[in-house]
Amino acid sequence: MTDERDANGELLPDSVRLTKFGKFLRSTSLDELPELWNILKGDMSIVGPRPQLVRDMVFMTEEQRRRHSVMPGLTGLAQINGRNAILWEEKLAIDLEYVNNITFIGDVSIVLKTITNVLTRKGINAEGMETAEDLGDYLLRNGMISDEEYLEKISESEQLLVIK
What we know:
- There is one protein chain.
- It contains 10 helices and 2 strands; from the N terminus they run αααβααβααααα.
- By secondary structure, it is mostly helical.
- A two-stranded parallel sheet has the order 1-2.
- The protein starts with 13 loop residues before the first helix and ends with a helix.
């Protein structure tokens, strides 16, 4: 993805900034391979809820944040059940279902279904989206939060990043 900006210095939409090579990487899931290093370091698991941006976390409810009580994974239950093509509410609920029902056999099943989904390139993007939409942007676009709430949460996420 490029960092092309408009006359005001704002980033152009993802659909404009995503290169052909970037589209290929995303469509084949090869863009996820660097996360193997995080697995080898012990920062991630092979299976678990996908890591989210701090910016997304501030928009989650306390219950939805429970998804962070387990190690994040390269793949997860939400990825084999729609990936980016499902609504945020569904994705977060599926993540909690995983957290509540972790089993070795379940993890093996998720890995096998992930291989099938990657080979068929299933669920990579939500309809009309080149990349995954941030949770806050989704909530704002669907009228679930006000502009003021959105800006307040974005400010909160920026403060959290400064603290870290």
